[in-house]
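Lab channel / #folding
Pinned by the channel admin:
"Please post every new chain as: sequence first, then the C-alpha cells as a reply. Keep commentary short and put observations after the output so the thread stays searchable."

First post following the new format, from NK:
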Amino acid sequence: MHRVLQSVIFKRVRMALGLGRAGSRVQDAVDLAIARLVKTRTIVKSLDGSLSLPGTELTQVRVPDDDENSK
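Reply from TO:
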C-alpha cells in the first residue's frame, strides 16, 4: 500500500503537464480535485496529510532520493 503526500501529487501533475512552475490556478485545481476525491471517499486523507486508497494500511515507507522523477 502506498501513501502519497499532496505536494508530491501536485509536483507530478506539473511534470505531466510539462510545467516548470505552476501558479495558484493549477494548485487550486489540484486541491479541488483532491478534495472531491476525499469527499466521495475515493481516496482517504490521513492525519499526516498523506493520501491513500480506502481500506488499505501502510506496509512500507519509501523515501524519495535525488532523482527528480522519484519525488
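NK: The radius of gyration is 13 Å.
TO: also worth noting, The beta strands are 4-5, 44-45, 50-52.
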